[in-house]
Amino acid sequence: MQQTRQYILETLRERGDATVDEIVQALRERINHNITAVTVRHHLDILRSEDLVTAPSVRRRRTPGRPQYVFGLTEKAQDCFPNNYQHLSAALLNQIKATLPPAQVNVILESVAQEMAANASILDVPLEARLDQVVAYLSGQGYEAHWETCQDGYLLHTRNCPYRQVAGEHQELCNMDFHLISALTGIVPRRVGRLADHDESCAYLIPLPDRVASPS
After folding, report:
1. For residues 183 and 52, is the Cβ–Cβ distance under 8 A?
2. Within this chain, do residues 90 and 175 fall inside the same structural domain, yes or no?
3. pTM, entire model
4. What's the CA gap between 118 and 34, in Å, rounded?
5. In this structure, are 75 and 107 located in the same domain?
């Protein structure tokens, strides 16, 4: 693939979505070249024709102003970011599920989540600082995470599923992620969005600490 278009895909993967101006700025920072909006639109048209980039949609604004039109990646675009372990992961999960009853499969995956959380070495600090650590860890694992405040506490988003091509046939991985988020944050979350359900992200509501009990 032409390098500039590959950079555009990588920018959209990192951001989740972006306007033309945001893509221009990201490319200028990355390739140190005074690329123009006209050029970016040309590349976006090509990527859309290849079904790698979505048609522009209106970004929801929290403040008054002109609507912003953003582009995102299609499902097909995920093939541009191959995972060398997907076939091995799928085969292992197939064998585990063929050998063990569902309850034991879930116990194993929950233990995997606990091990991942332990290896993350998240410090016991105030929740917002902890969420910063969680986001840094998850993003380093390919989840492309971020958090934001909301009326009921905090929303933790993961815009990419590292197991996307495996999770479709193995929904148990979604439960593993749930246990991972719980272990990382120290609070049992409530799932309010799933990429598997065509939401913009996997989203977890993290209630304020004084409203919930920490997981054991």
Report:
1. no
2. yes
3. 0.60
4. 44
5. no
